[in-house]
Amino acid sequence: MKKTLVLLALSLLLLCSVYATGTNEATRTGAEKQVVTLRISHNMDFTTIPEAVVDAAARVNARYEKEGKPITIAFEKDYQTIDWTEYQNNIVFAHKINDAPDIFAMSDPAGLIKAGLLLDLTDMVNANSSKFVKNVFAAATENGRIYAFPPDLPVRVIYYNKNVLKTIGWSDAEILALPKRIQSGEFKFEDFLSLCKEVVEKGGAKYGLSHRPGAGSDFLDILNVLGGQYYDEKGSLVFDEQGLTRFFKMTYDNANVTKITPPNLNQMGWTTINTMVGTGESFAYYGPIYSCSYVASAAKLTNEQFAAQEEFVLFPASKYSEKPFVVAAPQYIGISSKTKYPEICLDLFAELANGSSDLLARHAAKINSLSSVIAANNDPQMATNPIIKDVAYLADYAVTVPSIYGIATYRSELFKQIVALELGQTTPEKAVADMKVQIRLNVKDVVFK
Predict the structure, then answer these.
(1) How many domains does the chain have?
(2) Containing domain of residue 418, as a range?
(3) Left (φ > 0), alpha (ψ -120 to 50) or beta: where does 411 sit?
């Protein structure tokens, strides 16, 4: 009897052992088959942004496997080409019906932040703060918290034609030294305007300085150069009468006194202006580096040919501003505050800032941009792009502007006055007064100084 009981006990023990082993194996097998499908949405071109996220996931999957995490990340893609306002409205609606993508592009981080639709990225960013270019999160920050990730760092600069300088008698050494003189603060904006005038007077180019033919933020950069202010530390719109007066006087003088800018520039259109810049008919231009491809194409040049003739430099300091700078206008991607997989999404963004920064370099090199991640700016892929291969240092001087309520109206009213000033139809003082009236009427909570 005793022997029978012992045998029975051993049998039960063996059965339990087999059952437990089978259960563990089933758990592991089931876990290995766990696939987390993230929905990623993008708008317009530059699909190298979402593809960087997707490719980073493959590396995270490999890391998870090594770490024994039973997770495989997959994606459902939704790439669109629609108006940005419509796209962002669709994102808002998708959140209302609980059908939002996990990761998505955006045109206005501030609006989505205020609506509570973006996951807080602050801890992830702080943990990787040494990886990022300084101040790249300004437009995605609210009350000290960060809500969106900048996959690139497009910068606005001044660029000019080196061949034109050669034509007016500059030596190779002088041409080579000019960017560093601007960088050091020795060669100021007033000197640059004088150079533009000299170029025209000596027949090096028909025009000395050109700009975009429509409202935009490019003009605000020159306002900053001249010591003008259009926002404060709180992100409020500022109407700076003295700064605007200086900017409007420069604008008027360029077209009507020194005549380095054509008075009818704003009626010329993009193709004409791009051709002028690309052929050297205009010595200098201020705007984003990424637009160089359009300029080169208009002048029937390759990017390599255009880069060989052109120099991309900082906005110089002036007697009204302390130091040179460039202005960065990053694109942003975010994580839905309603995602079921916040940790995985955050892990993907952290991966892009670290081991997969080369994927951001791939994107930046494709669109003639710098990167928000320091390592990406030093990636070999950047060296293959003739436009940006020698300007990584510009990232150290980048200023990122916060979201500003009323800035669209400000830009529009500013441009109206620019057109009238260049045509000689108004004065700098009247332009300031007229613009002030419109800003008072159409924008709330403006700081007037």
Answers:
(1) 2
(2) 155-328+404-448
(3) alpha
